[in-house]
Amino acid sequence: MKQFLIYGSWLLTFSAALLFFPSCEKFMNPEQELAITEDKLYDDWYEYRSIEMGLYGLQQDLVEQLLVLGELRGDLLEITPNADADLVEIYNFNPSRTNRYASPTNFFKLIAACNNFIHVLETEHPEILDPESPITNYDRLYGEALCMRAWAYFNAVRIYGKIPYIHESLTTIEEIEEYVESPGTYTDSVHIIFNRDGYQNDTLLNEPFELEKRYYDLDLVLDHFINQLENDVKAVGVNHYIDNNDVTWEITIWNDWALHALLGHMYLTQGDLVRAARHFGIIMRNTSETYRYHVTNSFSYGGWANIFSDIDNKEHIYTIWFSKTYFQQNRFQELFEPWIPNQYMLKPTYQAILKWESVFRNQVYLYDNVNPSKTRMAFPGIPSDFYRGIGASFLYARKNGVSITSEEYENMIMLRRDGDDRSSRIIMENMDTIVYKYSVGKNRYSHDANYIIYRAGGIHLYMAEIFVYWRYDQNGIIKENIDASLGLVNDGSIYYGQVASRPEIGIRGRVGLSGTSDKISVANINYLHDPFTNKITGYIDLTGNFIGKQEYLEEQILHEKARELAFEGERFYDLMRVAKRRNDPSFLAEIVSSKFPAGKREEMYNFLLDENNWYINYFD
Known about the structure:
The chain is an alpha+beta fold. The chain has a domain of 194 residues. 40% of the residues lie in helices and 13% in strands. The strands form nine sheets. Strands 1-7 form a two-stranded antiparallel ribbon. A hairpin with a 6-residue loop joins β17 and β18. The radius of gyration is 25 Å and the shape is globular. The N terminus is likely disordered.
């Protein structure tokens, strides 16, 4: 039968384990070999688990593509002279069909694998389709596969603008490729439907079946897969850590928290703020004794970089795991590091570095409320977002590969603040910028940094974005909730669903940026500053302009997301979402084009004014 041949191939390809692993590190060990004959497939639980492992291997194959497409097309990442032709094409928004980052093949492989697994689970265990039946591990596996498939479609449609709907009967990459290349209809030559009694010999249909090729745009993908996740998922994530005593295991597979994060993200993209807030709120309001997914002091100050050195169930919601020990590696360090054997093909933009270095703490104003143009800084403050910037998200290194020291960096930013540009430039001579987030805790040969899909900091910032536009009815009076947005970002003082005893300290609070003068605020008069000296250069008057205040706060949250979530794969889609909400493509065009050289900036700005150019038009 068709599914047996496919799954026998899978088992040999991914070589997943048939025994419960003692720890997360053996999650997808390719050293383990299987040789299972067709008549033995699906005889017991371990065979299902082996297929589950293969699905996560396919997700691993997507991470480099997701990071490059989500960041290199945004404003925080650019190419170096070492960049290969594929990266140059992505940077310039003109990928060819042979570009490995533009290819949908890895998405199709994952969708095909999920289709096959979902079909087998529905056939072999029809009880998963009964909402009244008790929840078993087969329901949890089913939830994992449905989440994985919805996530694949969601990411693909954000990249391509439209994606072929892959019918569930298409269960190999060869079938999918033939289907995609077909002119209008495709004949699925072995289409088999089994009765819901679970007996494979009770075949209802076994004949060629015509499939009409359909494309789903973003709205259709969201409608279809939101509905499926809301209605068909009973539970998500097999509780492996009960057997292996590794509490990080559940974070490296799709789980109930990750389901809510995905649904919240999809609803936010759809523009349904109420339902997005409902799902994000379930994560943020959880009552675990460890304050899981609350922004507390767990990763405060210098501990913030530890988010990227290991997996932790207080911050990580869903993370794609890698380990050099088990030959599970990626190319992040190769792309970002200048040290041999790595190739340094991508680096932070000037605009990215400014996001961290233009932050000042403990600044003191001399306000003139009558004449704001006369307001001055009594003390400019201490420059730089130390804990999330240098040594955590980025690094400076000289052309010879020697990194800047902390003393050199502090001297440089203080000299620059005080106007001594000459001395600061001497320190920075021959320095270049490096993405460091995937090098924290690694040596140059590791190549196994984890890739975070969802984490607590990102969920809180999504909710802060929602509260910018949140309106509610209080005794017949419509009110806004901007204060809740500010509370989430600054110090956790206004927390969604919070009881007073919870130790929320806010996104900026956990890195020491929630004081009276250095927190984000929105007022009638909002001052503009020189990014290096912090001197006041002007102001924006938003008196009586509530929409203007909303957009100003939205932009401040985007800046904060850059500091907190830079290089984690979502920057371009954040800019797309805000531009679409404002119905203003120039918003994205202005921000992204600013990273290009002066001679090309205007050309890229005009190019990006057309929303069609935000997508890789692979299927046109």
